[in-house]
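Can't attach files on this board, so I'm pasting raw text. These are the components:
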Amino acid sequence: MGSIINHIRCTTGTIGIQLLLLICAIALSACGSGGSGGSGGSVAGGGSSNLNRPPTANAGADQSVFELTTVNLQGSGQDPDIGDTLTYQWTQIAGQTVTINKDNMTNANFMGPDVIFNVPEVLTFELLVSDGNVGSYMTDTVDITIHEPHVTVSGNIQYEFVPPNSNCKGLNYDEILIRPIRQATVEIIDDTTGDIIDTTVSNDVGEYSFKIPRHTMAFLRVRAELLRTEASPSWNVQVRDNTANNNSPLLERPLYMLDSTVFDTGNGNLDITRNLTATTGWDGTSYTDVRAAAPFAVLDMIYSVMLVILTEDSQADFPALDVFWSINNSTVEGDGTHYENIASGEISGSFYDRKKLFLLGMADDDTDEFDDHIVVHEWAHYFEDNFSRSDSLGGEHYFGESLDMRVAFGEGFATALSGIGLNNPIYCDTYGAGQDRGWRMDIENDNVGFAGWFNEISIQNLIYDLWDTNNDGADNDSLGFGAIYNVMTGAEVVTPAFTSIFSLISELKTQNPGRDTFINALLVDHNITAAGIDIYGSTETNNRGDAADVLPIYTNAQIGTPFEICSNSQFDNGRIGNKLSEHRYLILDVNSASALTLTVDNKNPPSQPSTDFDCTADINDPENHEHSDPDIVIYQNGNIISEGTSCEPNREVMTSPILSGRYVIDIVEHRYLDDDSPNSFPEQSCFDITITL
Amino acid sequence: MNRIFIIHVPLIVFCVYALTACQNGNDNVTDGDSVSEKKAVVVRSKSVLMDAPRTSLRKPSAPISIDYEIIGTPVIGIPLSINVKVSSTLNQPIKMNYRIIDTTSLMFTDAQAQSISLILVDSEAFATEQVTVVPQREGRLYLNVSAEIETELGMMAKVMAIPIQVGSLQPTLPLNGTITTGEDGEALISMPAKEE
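---
Top answer:
Structure tokens for the assembled complex are below.
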């Protein structure tokens, strides 16, 4: 409502000016009233009782009305002087011009103009009330907001989640849970034009709401997407089908959408509720319908673990992640022409690779969309890759194996983070006909294989125990996730050593000096040497049961001093190339900047190249796979500085760029990661190494 | 890993190179992405295409390896033998289960056991079991194998689907929804919601 202010003429007399001003202020305050419309007017008449006093004006309350309807302006005026006759005049002072009918009456009207949807227009009108005396009038204004009529469409979006049976013996379709689809992009689309009318994001209980035009044929569309890019924290996760439109580039494969049916928004008198559920497609015995729940289940697992990261860094910016899930993603390893053929879904297993996450989905074979620890395990690789640093070689790995320490650390950390992120230590993997089989593991307690710095189970136990507050055995304290997060996103990123349990623990101990006893007890419990631990594992004594070529973890290389080192495939029965003792590490300090020549010669070559053999001439020559082939890679702070990876038989000679500072070097027998090398190739390859200026 | 190719290996390598060239690398996981240089590790240095997938970070599996060798050329109606080779780092019996999801495409012979227990003589050695199936149609057919082993953690399993290509008919991959396009031409796969 517009305010009315009576202007009072104040006179001076024997009262002091300051007192007079105070009285005036009190009088003005008492007479004024609040409102959005301003008022004004001229002051008329004198200050004594026989002078004319101005009228009051009231333009009425502000209004919010629909377009193309008659709008009534209801004004009024009063005059304190008996005998004065009041006149009225309405004038438009702002907004799209309209014609005012009866503009000299207290009650006028006009036709509301046509406005754009969701762009309301404010028209301002002034009412002038005059008592007929010269200069004696008062004004008041009123705002009329014109809207296009709308209807509110709101509701909940959710998905069906199939939990595992007890002990992870398959999925339990009898106990399907309904969970909200959180933070997903929701669109409302004009079915006639295909245009997106409006876009919003569901909240953390899956609610959404739109205001849209009346009489619109529309449908709702929920994108399998977490998208927040305008401010920190930010994220961009999309779930796509890698086997659909598979002639197009991977990142242009179709994004999953959950669509409602088309509905009429009506005349605006009734709000509309539309609750949508992404269902499993399960009919009681098999998947017979679209498996709409799967992409949203995956999206929600990822959101859950992102929240854990956000508790440590509320402004975290998550680099874009593309998730690929398909009902055709199977455990087929391919036959050479289909090796990890992403377009056909023959991906072998769920995996992460460079901001892309691939998940199994073939029914009756192996589906991972409801195996939340597997999804979060793979997401943890994304975390390590993007927030921390991963030096892992990747590749197949089995629980309990003796792995390259970089692989053991990456995999152990990922499984630990799955338990931490889901606040559930029971890792579960279901598979089989009707998804009726499965196996489980307790991340906190279980162990298998030879414990130590090379066993991913030891690593996952240790990291989980550093986090959890459940006391058992040596695990009688907790550092919380923050301590682990700080090291993983800080010192671990720039460690001059390879990323391993040694680099994590060394820095954890530095940053948490009062927790040495607790950390040491956990290390000992997992057969890792605690005393004097450093980022290189220099004091480690666990050589995996006196296995050859395991210790020392790093060999200090001296320029000009030849030495011997052996690569050993004793723990690799599949030419995977990621097992303990296959890759041997060197530390090299270059005190004065210089280029170096590194020569690695096999001490006892198992074979000699035939006359005229040229490994570069024909990639199909079987002889390529027969001879020893040492490789050299030089790293500094996790970055590859130079590689010597020629195919020359029995030796590698490389000249580095100019080096200065500390480097770590990876020496490996390439035949140990060559599928086609013969079984007769020796388990151990020993090399003479020289480094010269 | 370690599939045993019945086709000549060099030919396969050549085909892989050729196919990749044709596809402009569409199925390379690095497609459209800024690839961290440090990922180009030694394992990619020689036979890049064959080794590349190994650098992916995979979900953990049971301590079991499964390899296979298809004996002969798959033909409709003709029994086809597949040598399934299993090994484990654990010296425990392995329970092998064989399944066919689409029984209209592939059948077991009457004598074929669908579940069998293998005892590994040596934890490093492969045990070989021969499975015989009969293709019922052309196309890409699958024999599903699971190997289960008791460990200190309880039962763990390794799952593998063995593809059997009968003839040259390429599979038509089923869709989980309807392909459509968005306002700006974006490829979408539409799935119907249950509404209330």
